[in-house]
Every structure is written in C-alpha cells, then in structure tokens.
Predict the 3D structure of the following.
Amino acid sequence: MNIVEFIKARIAEDEAWAQARIASDAWRKSVTMPPRFGEPEPRPARPDDPTRVLRRCEALRATTQALQELVEDGEAPSLVEATTLRHLTPIAAIWSDYPDYQEFA
C-alpha cells in the first residue's frame, strides 16, 4: 500500500462513518453545542459532526487527487514525487493511530 492508497482508504472509512451517522438521524441532537454562559447563540458544530466530516473528506480527497496527478503528469518525476510525498505525509498523519501508518512516518 502506498501513501495515496492509505489516505484514500482512510477517507472512505471516515465517509462511511459520517454517512451512517447521518442515516441514523441521532446525530442531529448533538451537532450544535449549547451556548456558554453569556453567549446568545449556540456554538458551531462539533468536530465529529458528520456533515463536517463529509466536507473534510471531500477536501482531502480533492487535495490528494491533485497531488497524485502532479506525480503522474510531472516532467521531473523524482522531484515532483518527493514534493508530493512531503505534502501527503501530514495528511496521512491524521490517521497516525493506524498500524499501517508507520510505513509513511
């Protein structure tokens, strides 16, 4: 498994989790956090809000795809590949708790 395959697999898992949460409809009760004392409005959605997770998945997928295309279309493949790997490694670090992440650390 290379770093792009690793990232795409983790994005797919996160996306499946978010879609299952949305389908269950139970998430709607916990999306907005209650206001703190003196705050008139509820605070923004929590980090585990499934709609936020889906937006993050889409952004990460687009970024990963764009970087992968640089490698595939690059005129200087070794330089482009090294640069791309440097940019993909922090993305992969999101899932650093996965055992197979250690291949890219």
In short: The first helix runs from residue 3 to 24. The first strand starts at residue 32 and ends at 33.
